[in-house]
Each structure stands twice: as structure tokens, then as C-alpha cells.
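To: structure subgroup
Subject: Chain for Friday's discussion

All,

I'm putting the inputs and outputs inline so they're searchable in the archive.
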Amino acid sequence: MERYEPMRRRLLRAACSTIAAAWAAPSSGVTVLDSTWRAEGGRRGREAQGLRAHVRLATQAQFRPVLALASDGSSWGEASCTWIGNSAQHAFLLTAAHIFEDRPRPDDYQVRGIDGRAHIPDRVWVHEEWNGEVDERAGFDLAVLRLPITLSGMGPAPALYTGDGEIGRLITFVGYGMRGTGSTGEDERFSTDGTKAAAQGVVDEWVGVKKPRRGEDRGNTLGIFMPKEDGSIPNHFGGPERPVTRLVGLLGAGDSGGSAWMESGGEWVIVGVNSNGDGKAGYGDSSWFTRVSSHRKWIGRLFPGARFAAPPANEPGPSYLFRPGRL
């Protein structure tokens, strides 16, 4: 399956074409079920309205740490990141490695805080096992940004999951990328004002870290599938063939670097970093996430203050239940 490009590469390519202005517009993430989009008031000429439930989900307090990135300080939504805490003088953020070019620099992107102010990182670390190929190293598609200031108003620093119980669980992923529906895939008509959106999916594919072999996938990924409401598309992972919640969806380009969350031990924990997807991000397509659990040592070495959460001894097995409140 061909995996789609990160938003920044699309922006760079589009800059040489007559549609550059359209690609440069801010965009907001995830593709969603047609039925939910219609129920929320989406229709021709009002495409963005159909994503209201997904925007409300993204604004829940636990997802406040997910922030937007822009290479020019204005095109917010080229990529996403997640604040994971402050040290005495710095803020640290997780993002995806593939959003950077071959020689990443701290100022390749600016970070927009929740107060709307833009901040320029002073350090960037890309995982040493990232080789630039999402089909081989999606499980190592990871980078850490450091800001020369601390961020306030973010709430408590989120915990990073350290277990291996993600399979069969419902995750909620958040980002600022392209929007669309299951039938359209990601489509610029659904773009809005740079706000974030969230969607959900069942972890149908769990791959642990594999031994390094040249040109082969190293594993360490979570995979989800977007089923159609009528169950007419076979789930190639073998999971549910109908949506388990009305907020099921996929990543869009620009969601890269955002985060996937799961409830564990009575709190929300980060289980993955948004990496990539295939097809047009519509029905029958998939999205993949870099598992954070295997990167505890690497993250902790760069940011000793990071919070980690081990799964409770009585953590439930696969569960498709989710109670998001009133959406």
C-alpha cells in the first residue's frame, strides 16, 4: 500500500504549481465517517461544519498539549506536535521525524502555543534509527523539539505509555492536518482556520520492534483501519468491519507529529505519534502510529522530566467502549 506524503512535502511540491495558494492555506486534521459528517450538518458549501464533533473532541482538556507547527509562522497545520512537559528553562515536544528534510534544524518549524504566540525551537533531536522511509522505519519516526522557554496553561504534563496492551483498544488521535470524509478522503474543501480535530480507531495491528535487516520494516507500530458504516469493506487486519463509534476516522496529511491517546489506569496516556497512512485516507484505508512505549529510554535521555505510565496490573484486554461525553 502506498503511504501518503507528509503535508510539508506536499506544500513544497505545490509551491511550483498553480495550486500553491490552496495548499498553503491552514488546514485541520482527520478524515471522518460520512454519516457523522452529515449528522453534524456537513453538506456541499458547508464541508467544515460536518467536523464539529471531531473539533469538540480535540478541545477536551486532556488533548490541550497537542500544538500546531508551521515552517513560516503562519501556515499552521503543516505538521503537529505534542508538549510533554517543562524543565526549569525549556519546554519539550514530541513530533514525527519525517516532517523534516535531510538535515533538520531547530528553526525549520515554529510552534504555536495555546495563547496563539509562535515560538522557535532551539534544539531538535531526530531518532538515530530513522532512515527517512516510513515503510521501513515508521516505528522510529520520532523527533523531539525543545523550546528556549517553558509553556504555561497546558495543564499537567501528559504521561507516556510504557506497556504493550494497545492491541484491540480504542485510541483517539489529534492533529492539525487535512480534513475530509470516508468517501472523499482528505480534501482541501474541508479546511478551516487551523483548529485541531480528533478521531478514533481500533488498534487492529500491533507490531513490536523487529531485528534490524536491511530494507525491511523494523516494526514498533500501531495500525488502524477505517471501516464503512455498512460493513461492506473487509478489514485486512481482521478487526471490526463496522465503526465502533461515530467518531471513527483516519489521519490526514499535516496530522503528522500529533499524538494518539488511550485511557489506561484511570488517566489518558500517549501511546503513539502520528506517522503516516495509505490511499487517500478514506474508507478501507489505514493509518499508522509510532509506538512510544519502546522509546522510553530515548525520550527520557533527552528529557529526564518526562512522565511515564506503566499499565495497571488489572488493565482490561481489547475493548471498543468509549464514553466521550456529549459530542
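Points worth raising on Friday:
The two ends are 33 Å apart (CA to CA).
The CA atoms of residues 43 and 107 lie 39 Å apart.

D.
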